[in-house]
Amino acid sequence: MTFEELRRQALIEWEEYRNNQKIRVTIGAATCGRASGALTVAEAIRQKIAELKIDALVTEVGCIGTCYAEPVVSIAKPGFPEIYYGGLTPDKAISLIEDFLIKNNPRPDIALGSLGDQVVPGIPALFDIPMLKPQVRIILRNCGFIDPENINHYIANGGYSGFNRALKMKPEEVIEEVKRSGLRGRGGAGFPTYLKWELCRKETAQEKYIICNADEGDPGAFMNRSLLEGDPHSVLEGMLIGAYAIGAKKGFIYCRAEKPLAIERLKVALKAAKEKGLIGNNILGSGFNLEIELREGAGAFVCGEETALIASIEGKRGMPTPRPPFPAQAGLWGKPTNINNVETWANVAAILQRGSEWFAQYGSEKSKGTKTFALAGKIKRTGLIEVPFGISLRQIIYEIGGGILNDKKFKAVQTGGPSGGCIPEKHLDEPVDYESLAKLGSIVGSGGMVVMDEDTCMVDVARFFMSFIQSESCGKCVPCRMGTKQMLDILNRITGGNGIPQDIDLLLSLSEGIKAGSLCGLGQTAPNPVITTLRYFRDEYEAHINLKRCPAHLCKDLINYVILPEKCQGCGICLRNCPVSAITGGKRLVHVIDQAKCIKCGTCEDVCPPRFKAVTKISGEKIELPEKPIPVTASSSQKNTADNSEK
Amino acid sequence: MENVHLTINGREVSVKKGSTVLEAAREAGIYIPTLCYFPDLKPYGGCRVCVVEIEGMRGLPTSCTTVATEGMKVYTETEAVNKVRRTVVELLIADHPADCLTCPADQKCELQKVAAYLGITEIRLPRKQPEYQVDESNPFFYLDRNKCILCARCTRACNEITCVGAIDMANRGYRMKVATFGDTPLFDSICRSCGECVARCPVGALVPKAHMPPAAEIETVCPYCGVGCSMFLGVRGERIVSVRGNPEGPANKGMLCVKGRYGIAEFVHHPERLTAPLIRKNGQFEQVSWEEALDVIAERLGKFKPDEVAVISSAKCTNEENYVIQKFARAVLGTNNIDHCARLCHAPSVAGLAMTFGSGAMTNSIEDIGQGACILAIGTNTTATHPVIGMTVKQAIRRGTKLIVVNPREIDLCRDADIWLRLKPGTDVALLMGMMNIIYAEKLYDENFINSRTENFDEFVRSLKEFPLEKVSEITGVNVEDIVRAARMYASSRPASILYAMGITQHSHGTDNVIATSNLALLTGNIGKPGSGVNPLRGQNNVQGACDMGALPGVFTGYQAVDNPEIRKKFEDAWGCKLNPRPGMVLPDIMEAAHRGEIRSIFLLVGENPLLSEPTLKHVEDALKKLDFLVVQDIFLTETARFAHVVLPAASFAEKDGTFTNTERRVQLVRKAVPPPGQAKADWEIICAIARKMGKSGFDYRNPREIMEEIACLTPSYAGITYERLEKGGIQWPCPTLSHPGTPILHTMQFNRGKGRFIPLSYKPPMETPDEEYPLILTTERSLFHYHTGTMSRKVQGLNKFRSEELVEINPEDAENLGIDDGDLVKITSRRGTITARAKVTEVSPRGIVSMTFHFAESPTNAITSMYLDPVAKIPELKVSAVRIEKVV
After folding, report:
1. Angle, helices A528-546/A502-517, rounded to nearest 10 degrees
2. Is residue A31 within 8 Å of A220, Cβ to Cβ?
3. Domain finish residue from A428, A453, A478
4. Which of A96, B375, B523, B597 is 20 to 30 Å from A400 at the Cα level?
5. Is-contact B113 B149, C-beta < 8 A?
6. Which chain A residues have any C-beta within 8 angstroms of a chain B C-beta?
7. Are residues A486 and B176, on separate chains, in Cβ contact within 8 Å?
8. With pLDDT > 70 as the criterion, what percentage of chain B qualifies?
9. CA A24, CA A78: separation in Å to the nearest integer?
10. Any chain A CB within 8 A of the CB of B888?
11. Using CA atoms, how far apart are residues B383 and A564, in angstroms rounded to an integer?
12. Which tens digit of pLDDT belongs to each residue from A386-422?
């Protein structure tokens, strides 16, 4: 079958699907959605629709990236634009179905936004909402809109047209196209993609391999997973183009087993692509052959490193090997191999679909195109975003993300996962691109972006990442295996209140040796969180070490929960709730926490009535506290009345 | 070979293309510190100590993994490089016990060396407390993980060199450790205790238990098997305190097995060593002086007629000793009744290959086995019997060589085999002829080779008709598809080599079996090139040499026939006496004749222990008892020696000079390392003394070197061999002149007999097949941990810990039918007698077949094995006997 024929058939099906004479419901049921309860919402919707005998097509789709608003559901009803709803529960969903589908009430109160030209009063255009407006969704264009298990949806929306175009070009021309686009690897290193392909193309071996790195091991990163769950074919198309360009006949997708839905979607996609003749022999009559096999990892962060990934596919223990030789010359089974990240492959498909010029219009001079980020942490609107390179951190955090959760004070934004660094406020106007973040001591990485506020202890952040590294280090090389352990031990001592002044120099010295000496990127970048936090937040380290103080009031060994005598009204709520009975007090007596018994769980702070706010954390400060319960003073109760009257 | 030119620290260096930067530096004498690097292991790049700066290369690449390229500029001592090195060493020392002075690795430790080179004088990191228990389960070495620096040289050795894979890295990151499968103690794992890991440990983590640093090292050859591993015996005073493989050893390249590495000192210095001559007086052995012993022998031996006397030489003795004993037998006793244990082992090889090629020896070298595209291992449990060759085979497989295993038992090699043909014992001719049938039918044979270098092809092809596949399948019990696959694989993977041992020879048609293998090689042109050949793996350390030296009834040295008048004249002239023109008796016939009383005296050399190695042991025992005069020369009072009239104490291999010839025809020097105990003497000295006592001349050699000079004069294939020339690496015969380098591969241009001869064959089943009374087949096998009749290996406590008794391996279904559980004591009975052993229930043995070793005197297997002989080579059919098994109640 020719591509034109495939496309024609796909369009027919897509048009039928988008038939605006029918009722259509989609539910964002990728892993994030499911974690928020999307499947129970889906169940409720299906049940309700069946009960009401409504003829509606219900499809589970991927994420549109508005994680803060999950579960997300869209309803397209004749006479209305397609409207997206957020924050649904089974009950809300049921009432939405009744209100909208029966009573024609589109429920602007729980709507996120609508698609298309038609306007519904009270409902903004979806792509105008603050979180989505600054985004440029190229990679994620189909996520949340198409049925990820239906290849015709993908084809109807331009899918595989890039590959079809590539087949008509010479492989060298395809590489040239990628070069002109300025695409850099999205896995983290940012290496020019065309250059990797060229090196592999130059090798004369008959057997070459193409690999998609879908390991995505950064804690909290889900960019690749979302894409695979929402639009797996975009990755397959990219791989087909890449294989054609370098001359590979066999490809592997290495996806960790901890992403079962992504794996499931990949299996469905591979099967569908094979059935349509897009994978296999003599694809689209071009004479080009490609087989793609799916391999599951077993949750080892180090297997995201390309040589360890290759070892894993070969059936060996996932440990990196020194480079040179590089995989482009001798990779899988010693043959020339090209590995790219999931997102890189999706970019390749888009570039060949719409042209390198179109792609290069986005981004900054040296960092072209867009990047997905998993925006997480102390931010109001968490989600999976896609922005052009060059956008500022401030824009991402405050416009897209809506600012700090609970309006607390911003402290730092961590990019690049365990290999990256923390960037402080003064650099928020810097553009997000490879060069700029590197200058700041961080990296773009695979796209993790964690926002931190005043309650985040930067030393603890460094400790957290180092602890992750220590449990993921493969153990082969001394600097990483033993050096990061020593660094973790030092950080544990510091956060435990046992730091000594030499520790900072020791951390920096070890960092230098580990960065320069480690065999692979895991070790080479492991000290980055420590280095950047020392660079920008050295005062916090010094406070921990010299003053035995945690400025963020987080490190348990350095904080004490105390009850302020001038605020305590002796209500007794904290006493009743303390799990270890560490609080003594009585009616109208200032309560006292026994520091020896206190386990610092924070329950007392949580339950103390907000109008009193009598429990607070101190760290390294000395304040006057009663040794045992004393009467609540009249002046303090007057003060409180005065406070109350101001309200 | 092209060279590349690079500069290191500004100095110009030139190396072979393909060398690494580290190798280039070493060659130029520039020191780059290393820890995880080892010359014969694939570069690992894990310790990071060998990092360098290379212009144009990002970061700090490891010099051990980076290939040197033309014009490269390398800097080995920059600040950045040293920063990394110091960080690494500081980290290692912080976690390393600080007990250098009392550590067995003191002075040898590579961590010490690197730390000293870097000048580390302070450790800023906290010191770690030991957390691991030392694993002392292995009798020969221990593993102290507290000192381990995780350089992985041990695990890489176990995977790349020995290809056993008993240890590997377990856990991840800081918790990584060297472990066995399931983290069991080493002794409970599949570790074969070869010690290759111990030999490569840079620190005091893997440490031999019994060794001490030697005062001197003597280069010699292992006394156990025919691989002929070159080794260094470390000595202090008069004792051997260590053994080390010689990396330059051509046969073993430094590798050793558990017996060679750990099984020597204990038997050499065993308290039961014979230290004085013994004479049996009134039923007891009495110690006497050499004078008296020699007098008695000279007087009594001199009284026997040539037909009444026989000499049994030893495959464990040196070439010089074998030469001297056969000269003694012929020139002094006037008899050609001389034989040795090759009769039990490769006599069919000698006979069979002489018929087909003209020469009965391994055609290729151990080194080039690995260069072939395919190996056919038939009737050889190589990893148990020739462990170092087993390692070589496995290394080849990992490089892509195909392996076809033919064996009724599931031997270790089966795990790595591409095809395993599990045939019924004794059906090899049918199998091989069946394979040749396919090769012929599918025109996979080498027509060129057959036309130009062989004869008698047509007659041979006619005999193939007797072996249609269905019939072959029925006889052998192997699927037709598998036979076809194997035939195609062997014929189309060129070059291909055949390795074989007792599974081929120890049959009543052993010579036919050997001929079948050479037919196969001739058919496919697999002769005369590296990676090809017909390779009988000789058992004893010097069985090849004993044959070469003419310790055989029908030939003098170099297989020169005694009944050839010209040859005989040459020897008569050289020895100054008339010689017996009639070929003598082979070993089984000697025993028979002794039984009948025709042979009345036997002179028997070190290491031969016919009371355990010969078939029909009761018969042998009776024969020996009937002798009028039995002289035994040995290092221990063996089972055979107990029947002697005179016992002479001999020197072990470590206590004399001489040469051994290994299975690949390589003559290597054996050097005296320690003095013999008490009054023990080297065999050649003893025999010469007896000869002189008997008034004969021609036995006045001052040293073995002079003996070899005489050998060279009389033996064309040894003519170019002198002790000087043997100093480095030995020489493979034929070596016809002093300038000839030796011959790694035989028959490269033409065969010894001119053209290779195809010999038609027909199938002959084993002489004894199962019946109602004796429903099972008994076959014999070997334990890695013991050698032959255990005279040496059972003196080593550690080897006994691994294997202390005979075990009869029986298939689970057979065991169940007989009501036998694993570990039960059972009786094994044949038409010859009955013995007792412990049952080991295992699927390694196929249904209907049980197997035993012959290492344990308490369960003398050969008391019940078959006595049928191959008509040509006279080897007994030790591999197939009919037995029944009953539980001992």
Report:
1. 170
2. no
3. A453
4. A96
5. no
6. 300, 302, 317, 321-322, 324-325, 470-479, 481-483, 485-486, 489, 502, 506, 509-510, 512-514, 516-519, 524
7. no
8. 99
9. 9
10. no
11. 79
12. 999 999 999 999 999 999 999 999 999 999 999 999 9
Summarize pLDDT for A540-580 with one digit per residue, the tens: 999 999 999 999 999 999 999 999 988 999 899 999 999 99
Residue B342 is predicted with a pLDDT of 84
Give me B30's structure tokens: 């520039």
> Per-residue pLDDT for A638 more than 60?
no
Asked if A244 and A351 sit in the same domain, the reply is yes
A193-207, A627-641, B354-368, B465-479: which range is least confident on average?
Answer: A627-641
Residue among A470, A509, A517 whose CB faces B88 most closely = A517
Q: Which of A302, A471, A478 sits opposite B88 (nearest CB)?
A: A478
Task: Supply the CATH number for residue A419's domain.
Answer: 3.10.20.600
ipTM of the complex: 0.90
- Average pLDDT on B59-72 reads 96
State the average pLDDT over residues A285-309: 95
Number of structural domains chain A divides into:
5
Taking 80 as the threshold, does the pLDDT of residue A60 lie above it?
A: yes
Whether residue A342 lies inside any domain: the answer is yes
Pair A119, A196 in one domain: no
User: Looking at the domain assignment, is residue A602 inside a domain?
Assistant: yes
Residues B65-80: what's their mean pLDDT?
Answer: 96
Specify the pTM: 0.92
Structural domain that includes position A225: 160-360
pLDDT digit string, tens, across residues A491-500: 999 999 999 9
Q: Which residue of A has its CA nearest to B66?
A: A324
Nearest CB to A516 within list B84, B91, B94? B84
Looking at the structure, tell me whether residues A537 and A465 fall in a common domain. yes
Average pLDDT of every residue of chain B: 94
CATH number of domain containing A583: 3.30.70.20
Q: Which two tokens stand for residue B207?
A: 């440490």
Question: Same structural domain for residues A267 and A338?
Answer: yes
CA distance A293 to B246: 47
Smallest Cα–Cα separation from A306: which of A333, A286, A287, A327?
A327
Q: Report how far residue B33's alpha carbon sits from residue A15's, in angstroms, rounded to the nearest whole number.
A: 69
- pLDDT recorded at residue B638: 84
pLDDT at B607: 64
| A121 shares its domain with A269 | no
Cross-chain residue pair B48–A476, CB shorter than 8 Å: no
Residue A632: its pLDDT value, please?
83
My answer on whether A206 and A245 are in the same domain is yes
**Quick count: other Cβ atoms within 10 Å of Cβ B132?**
13
Could you tell me where the DSSP H helices lie in B479-549? 480-492, 502-505, 510-523, 543-548
Q: Let me know if residue A135 belongs to a domain.
A: no
Look up the CATH number of the domain holding residue A491.
1.20.1440.230
Q: Tell me the shortest Cα–Cα distance from A311 to chain B, in angstroms.
A: 14
**Whether A417 and A432 share a structural domain:** yes
A344: domain CATH number?
Answer: 3.40.50.11540
What pLDDT score was predicted for residue A647? 42
Q: Is residue A143 part of a domain?
A: no
B55: alpha, beta or left, given left = phi > 0 and alpha = psi -120 to 50?
A: beta
A465 and A447 share one domain: no
- Please report, for the domain that includes residue A123, its CATH number: 3.40.30.10
Q: Is a pLDDT exceeding 60 seen at residue A645?
A: no
- pLDDT value of residue B302: 87
* Angle formed at CA B223 by CA B219 and CA B229, multiple of 5 degrees: 55
Q: Concatenate the DSSP letters of all residues of A576-599 into one string.
A: HH-TT--EE--TTEE-EE-TTT--
Q: Which residues of A touch B94 (CB under 8 A)?
A: 482, 486
Q: What is the average per-residue pLDDT within A26-49? A: 94
Residue ending a domain, choose from A453, A481, A497: A453
Inter-chain contact A485–B174, Cβ cutoff 8 Å? yes
